[in-house]
Write a structure and sequence with these properties.
heterodimer; A: Rossmann fold; de novo design (two linked rop proteins); 3 domains; 4-stranded parallel sheet; 17 helices; B: alpha+beta; 4-stranded mixed sheet; 7 helices; binds flavin mononucleotide; binds iron/sulfur cluster; binds FE2/S2 (inorganic) cluster
């Protein structure tokens, strides 16, 4: 296979990659100009026909989502950009914002034109200081150059982009949690329906899209539908519900791998190829034990499942929740799955918003059971208890409002099922894990 | 400030125009009005402005923010406390805030050891501030810099590929 030429990341290593001048020297904002010469419906259809699916985790077809907005609505309609990026292992949005903010702003402007929105709020996790600085400067440059504000390029289209910083809470990435947070409230996800397209931010029709999705919108407008569809994996003819996995994808690679980083590759590369060919394999002569395929919410692949394709359909075929954020975390064979799973469970217990009892209590029970195991006091019955709790929480069993609980359940279900013998041995041996912070307990 | 501090109480802290927010901060908050259709949406931006400047959001500051945003103080308080990010007057931030990531990619590469080591070095527990008020040290969940694990955030800048020696070095250079 010929080496894939990056598109979304094409500019990140250029000197001065963040400036408007350098972006325009590379043909920047020509795609916006092109879109403004089309009708909003034509732009929406372009994105729809490209087969683009959202990059934020759920993989919902982007153009289709835009068509859910009420027709002939008097406005305002909002575009809320999800830059809360907090799924452990994920950092591709950060790289895009820090290194090529204008590619994102162009995608936002094209999308707003398509959905007839004149205001976009970009919800940025607070910890992304450099992203904030890069975006702020880029937005200011755009206002000064007439690319944002009133009557953009003389088209009569007006657009404001407001940067809004979060406050270190994972749940603000869930789209209705984000909306509540933007409104100045606690980020308690809403019961759906109504979906945001009908009643979202400030009770107005709202589209929520991810940063990488915006970068794809820019490139589809620039290069066309055929280009996008020439990359990736077409729908499986045997599965009428498969919408395919077209386009390039930013895979985040981290953990026990020689060359961690963000890799832009055609959708559908296998975990093995990503880890071995691009990541340079596992350090210290060790082997892969497990791989997180798309952020910890998605569960685990075993070493025997490395040939799984990392497209929207692949991870689900081996019992994972999905592709998620395509954040691939490699875990070597010297690492205990008990420790890995405890780390995941602790994350979700910490980040549950507390609104639904099964999630608030269930995530903490799972954390406590795993803590007990790490203290050498686990029992074999604990494994069944973990399966029972993880099987009872989430939108899939229908007991919770949002998908955080499904994401909390999945690594537990996968680990206990796929690595059961390791868990059993750990429990039977009475082994304890080393907690470097054990003497610091009592901290918040 | 005297008297019991309660959000609703018309105690001494409530009267007399002894505001804690500077006119400059208030102007910055008012400057955000045109960007949002409701004043309530300015709650987080206002909390950030106050928190960054004063290293805490006190009961009196909550009251003043509420007044600027036409809210009841309990509404601002409710939002503020949901995000465990903001400190009140009982545990204000030190001059610098240092977050060490404890999530999976960092944990696999020594993040937990880094956090514990820095706690020992600075004689604090996660969440505490050094006795000289220079550094508040806490754990973070994934900082979105996993390719540089383990990493830490100091105020608004991320430092990647840390180890005990490098982290100590960076911390010693803080002004
Ligand atoms: C608990 C939870 C956290 C999420 N975090 C994020 C996030 O940080 N960024 C993101 O884009 N989507 C996140 N999502 C998905 C969003 O709800 C939503 O599907 C997405 O932002 C839509 O954008 P897209 O269609 O462009 O992918 C999260 C979902 C859940 C359930
Ligand atoms: S599932 Fe969990 S995170 Fe989602 S709304 Fe319910 S309690 Fe909150
Ligand atoms: S896990 Fe530490 S930065 Fe992502």
């Amino acid at each position: 296979m010929a080496e894939f030429e990056p598109v979304l990341l094409a500019r990140i290593n250029k000197p001065d990659s963040t400036s408007l001048a350098s972006y325009q020297a590379d043909g920047g904002y020509e795609a916006l100009r092109k879109a403004l010469g089309m009708s909003p419906v034509e732009v929406t259809n372009t994105i729809k026909d490209s087969g683009l699916r959202g990059r934020g985790g759920a993989g919902f077809p982007t153009g289709l989502k835009w068509t859910f907005l009420p027709k002939d609505h008097p406005g305002p309609i909002y575009l809320a950009i999800n830059a809360d990026e907090s799924e452990p292992g994920t950092f591709n949005n950060r790289v895009l914002m820090e290194k090529d903010p204008h590619q994102i702003i162009e995608g936002i402007a094209i999308s707003c034109y398509a959905i007839k929105s004149n205001t976009s709020y970009l919800y940025l996790r607070y910890e992304y200081g450099q992203s904030y600085r890069a975006l702020k400067k880029a937005v200011e440059e755009c206002y000064a150059a007439g690319i944002l504000g009133k009557n953009i390029f003389g088209s009569g289209f007006d657009l404001d982009i407001v940067l809004h910083r979060g406050a270190a809470a994972y749940i603000c990435g869930e789209e209705t949690g984000l909306i509540e947070s933007l409104e100045g409230k606690r980020a308690w996800p809403r019961i759906k329906p109504p979906f945001p397209a009908i009643e979202g931010l400030f009770r107005k029709p709202t589209i929520v899209n991810n940063i990488e999705t915006m970068a794809c919108v820019t490139q589809i407008m620039k290069r066309g539908i055929e280009w996008f569809k020439s990359i990736g994996v077409p729908p499986d003819p045997a599965n009428p519900r498969d919408a395919g996995s077209y386009g390039p994808k930013l895979y985040c690679l981290s953990g026990h791998v020689n060359k961690p980083g963000v890799y832009e590759l055609p959708m559908g590369i296998t975990a093995r190829e990503l880890i071995e060919k691009y990541g340079g394999g596992v350090p210290n002569g060790r082997q892969v034990k497990a791989v997180v395929p798309g952020g910890i919410s998605m569960g685990f692949l075993t070493a025997a499942e490395l040939d799984t394709k990392l497209d929207f359909a692949g991870p689900g075929k081996v019992g994972c929740l999905g592709l998620g954020t395509a954040a691939v975390v490699v875990i070597d064979d010297a690492t205990s799955m008990v420790d890995v799973l405890f780390n995941c469970a602790r994350f979700f217990a910490h980040e549950s918003c507390g609104q639904c009892t099964p999630c608030r209590e269930g995530t903490d029970w799972m954390r406590k059971i795993l803590q007990r195991m790490r203290n050498g006091k686990g029992t074999l019955a604990d494994l069944d208890l973990l399966m029972e709790v993880s099987g009872s929480i989430g939108t899939i069993p229908g007991t919770t409002i949002c998908g955080l609980a499904d994401g909390a359940a999945w690594p537990v279900k996968n680990a206990v099922k796929k690595f059961r013998s390791e868990f059993e041995e750990y429990i039977k041996s009475g082994k304890k894990s080393v907690d470097p912070g054990a003497h610091l307990v009592g901290a918040h | 400030m005297s008297g019991t501090q309660s959000l609703n109480g018309a105690g001494p802290a409530n009267g007399g125009g002894r505001g804690v927010l500077s006119e400059e901060i208030k102007e910055q908050i008012r400057g955000l009005y045109p960007k949002y259709p409701t004043k309530r949406a300015i709650t987080l931006p206002a909390l950030h402005l106050v928190h960054d400047t004063y290293r805490q959001v006190s009961v009196e500051a909550i009251r003043e923010i509420a007044e600027l945003l036409d809210l009841h103080p309990s509404e601002v308080h409710d939002t503020m406390t949901f995000y465990q990010f903001f400190r009140d007057e009982k545990a204000p931030l030190g001059k610098h805030r240092v977050w060490v990531c404890r999530s999976i990619s960092c944990m696999l590469r020594g993040g937990e050891e880094l956090l514990a080591g820095l706690c020992d070095k600075l004689h604090v527990k996660p969440g505490d501030t050094t006795s000289d008020g220079a550094v508040t040290l806490e754990f973070a969940e994934c900082l979105g810099a996993c390719e540089g694990a383990p990493c830490m955030l100091i105020d608004e800048d991320c430092h990647m590929n840390m180890d005990q020696a490098k982290a100590t070095q960076v911390l010693s250079q803080l002004a």
